[in-house]
Amino acid sequence: MATIKAIEGRSVHQIQSGQVIVDLQSVCKELVENSIDAGATSIEVRFRNNGLDAIEVQDNGSGITPDDYETIALKHYTSKLASYDDLASLQTFGFRGEALSSLSALSKFHIITARATDGAKGTKLEFEQSGKLKGTSVVAAKQGTTVAVETLFYNLPVRRKELEKNIKREYNKVLQLLNAYACISIGVKFSVSNQVPKGKKTIAFLTNANLSTKDNISNVYGAKTITALVPLNLEFDMDPSDRPGATQSARNWSTQVDSGSHTVKIVGHISRPVVGEGRQTPDRQMFFVNSRPCNLPQVAKAFNEAYKSFNITQSPFVFADIKLDTNAYDVNVSPDKRTIMLHDQAALLESLKQSLLELFEGHDQSVPQAQLP
Ligand code: ADP
Ligand code: MG
């Protein structure tokens, strides 16, 4: 008798979903990215009980057309990518059509949506665990979409218990990620709040629809943070052996190096390596590849090491957006899309460290007059 059998469809769905939605952070990441992809200029994230009871993301984006109601939460249904070849030219965060389908498998979730042409009338969509549309009803709603995720992992007891145990830490992790989206998103207003049981609703942070990342950072971290920052504006070739050893233009916080076929630009903001202006923990560091927030532990390490040469006791504030050719990295490495594979990472890190040292040295030589004895 054959012992190898196919796993039943429902179980496959649950297993795969658990890889896309691994924690509270992945829920928020997917929903906020969907809102940005929908062209929203206002995104409100509401946590209930730090996200344990519910997470709601409301946007004023395009809304969803009724023709898509049936398929929106089915696996691999997406409006953003039709074939693998489209991946290289992708302009959106989403592309695999997995988030809503995974959320339907792992939480009690519903959507309320309205398009500009719908007046004040919206539609509430409810789904089965499989992602199949269960029913619709008419509700009052403004243009845009609200996705509500309740009791995340209610059907995965071990994960639910872990989530409950670590909820404070998880919530803080989510806030850090939301900070990154709020800081990088130009012209998008963010509002993030948390309602604890029997307590008051607290605002975690707010941004205006600013036209610069600097103003976003100021809204999120306070105007004082901004005064300790200098612009980050690096440009170099991937291959360090091609680089001239010059320290030219380090003084104006910019290192221009001959651009080759793999030119990398890193733009953003960083704290001056001045003792007393850094922080004890590296909790204010955000990294992006072409404006996509992502985990880049090696890049973070390069920043911290270079900074340590000048300020041994503290960590820098870093907001660094790495501008790369779309064929120089792969976002499709992990199911949660936070891990990015960088082509030629070793060469990039080498050039980055060199450029940062030049940048910080440039600062060292130009102590503001006011600070001289
Ligand atoms: P993906 O983002 O990879 O396409 P998702 O499961 O996250 O997959 O979303 C499926 C589809 O649902 C999207 O392609 C989009 O068309 C639609 N959608 C999801 N969220 C929103 C939203 N907030 N506003 C408008 N459309 C949305
Ligand atoms: Mg998506």
State the separation between the terminal residues, measured CA to CA.
Answer: 88 Å
| CATH homologous superfamily assignment of the largest domain | Histidine kinase-like ATPase, C-terminal domain
Shape call = globular
Strand portion: 15-25%
Please state how the strands of the largest beta sheet are arranged side by side: 5-4-3-6-2-1-7-8
Mean pLDDT: 86
The CATH class of the largest domain: Alpha Beta
Number of strands: 16
Number of domains: 2
- Outline the low-pLDDT stretches: 240-260, 365-373
The SSE order reads HHEEHEEEEHHEEHHEEEEEHEEEH
CATH architectural designation of the largest domain = 2-Layer Sandwich
DSSP helical segment count:
9
Profile the largest sheet. Answer: 8 strands, mixed
- CATH topological fold name of the largest domain: Heat Shock Protein 90
How big is the Rg? 23 Å
* Class by SSE composition: alpha+beta
Fraction of residues in helix: 25-40%
Distinct small-molecule ligands in the complex: adenosine-5'-diphosphate, magnesium ion
Describe the protein:
With 373 residues, this protein is an alpha+beta fold. The chain folds into two domains: 9-213, 2-Layer Sandwich (Heat Shock Protein 90); 228-365, Ribosomal Protein S5, domain 2. Helices cover 29% and strands 25% of the residues. It is built from nine helices and 16 strands. Strands 5-4-3-6-2-1-7-8 form an eight-stranded mixed sheet, covered by helices on one side. The longest helix has 20 residues, at 345-364. It is globular and about 65 Å long. Mean pLDDT is 86; it is low at 240-260 and 365-373. Adenosine-5'-diphosphate binds next to helix 2 and helix 3. This is DNA mismatch repair protein PMS1. Residues 217-361 form the DNA mismatch repair protein S5 domain. Belongs to the DNA mismatch repair MutL/HexB family.
